[in-house]
């Protein structure tokens, strides 16, 4: 008998709702003669990515865990827990079995609590829960949650937008197609950037120049196919999408660059790196980490020369 049960733990982990709560990462009370209500929050280095959808680093996940509440939790025995006295958004929960034989399925019913609000004051509704699911099940979702692999009735049809499913092969094709679309969107910007390099002859292109070029750029059919099925969409609308892509790319690149730079500064503090003055320079450490500077060590590992 085939029973398509959805694991409670998967639902609890997947349907995280972004609700503000007090940060209770391990803290130390200020026991000096000064104010008694001062807290010192301590953590390992943070990447600053506190989205429950995309956070991956341990310290960032600690912050997410202390500032978000989910649909379900567990009691001391590891059993699912919910209700008025639990730090979850679910007031009542029921799991029932419907159908028989190969058509037997498990239905999970959630009743949300009234009065729960986001940090901006907006009330929590079932639409917010659905938004979480839309994100996790989006074919181009790149976070760590694997809700898309759960055996949910209609899931593959939703992700592929087809009434029949080809199983894992079709899902892989869908992922490859989505990756291809993402590459096409980046390629459109890269080609435009290279064209500007050829035109200005200065060896660089400013952000202002890129935005100006995007405002008059004739967007390719490949880009259009990557962002919409509307064959009648205007060039103006496509340029707005391209500008959004450019702004997103800039933001993410700068954040990643900053993270890599900060990490490089602390990566070479121990011997033998600490024995050499060059590794006291954060720029040198960053360039070495990124592979732009090579280091050739002597056999005794007490001296080296830089090769650029």
> What percentage of residues falls in helices of 4 or more residues?
40-55%
Main sheet: which strands, in order across? 1-4
DSSP summary: helix tally: 9
Principal-axes geometry comes out as extended
Number of strands: 10
Radius of gyration: 26 Å
Q: What assembly state would you assign to the polypeptide chains in this entry?
A: single chain
Strand content: 5-15%
User: Which stretches are low in confidence, meaning pLDDT under 50 for 5 or more residues running?
Assistant: 1-30
**What is the N-to-C order of secondary-structure elements (H for helix, E for strand)?**
HEEEHEEEEEHHHHHHHEE
What features would you describe in this structure?
41% of the residues lie in helices and 13% in strands. It has 308 residues and is α+β, with helices and mostly antiparallel strands. A hairpin with a 5-residue loop joins strand 5 (73-74) and strand 6. The radius of gyration is 26 Å and the shape is extended.
């Amino acid at each position: 008998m085939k029973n398509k049960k959805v694991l409670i733990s998967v639902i609890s982990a997947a349907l995280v709702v972004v609700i503000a709560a007090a940060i209770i990462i391990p803290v130390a009370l200020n026991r000096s003669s000064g104010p008694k209500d001062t807290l010192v929050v301590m953590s390992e280095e943070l990447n600053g990515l506190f989205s429950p959808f995309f956070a991956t680093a341990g310290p960032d996940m600690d912050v997410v865990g202390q500032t978000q509440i989910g649909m379900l939790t567990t009691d001391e025995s590891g059993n699912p827990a919910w209700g008025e006295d639990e730090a979850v958004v679910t007031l009542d929960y029921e799991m029932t079995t419907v159908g028989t034989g190969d058509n037997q399925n498990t239905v999970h019913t959630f009743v949300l609590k009234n009065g729960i609000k986001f940090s901006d004051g907006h009330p929590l509704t079932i639409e917010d829960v659905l938004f979480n699911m839309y994100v996790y099940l989006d074919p181009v979702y790149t976070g760590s949650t694997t809700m898309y692999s759960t055996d949910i009735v209609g899931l593959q049809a939703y992700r592929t937008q087809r009434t029949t499913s080809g199983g894992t092969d079709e899902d892989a094709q869908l992922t490859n197609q989505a990756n291809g679309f993402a590459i096409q969107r980046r390629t459109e910007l890269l080609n435009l950037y290279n064209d500007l390099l050829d035109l200005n002859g200065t060896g660089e292109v400013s952000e202002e120049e890129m935005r100006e070029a995007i405002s008059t750029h004739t967007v390719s059919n490949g880009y259009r196919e990557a962002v919409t099925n509307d064959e009648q969409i205007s060039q103006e609308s496509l340029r707005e999408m391209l500008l959004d892509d450019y702004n997103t790319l800039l933001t993410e690149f700068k954040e990643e660059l900053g993270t890599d730079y900060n990490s490089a500064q602390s990566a070479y503090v121990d011997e033998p790196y600490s024995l050499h003055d060059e590794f006291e320079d954060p720029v040198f450490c960053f360039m070495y980490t990124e592979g732009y500077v090579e280091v050739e060590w002597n056999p005794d590992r007490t001296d080296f020369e830089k090769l650029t």
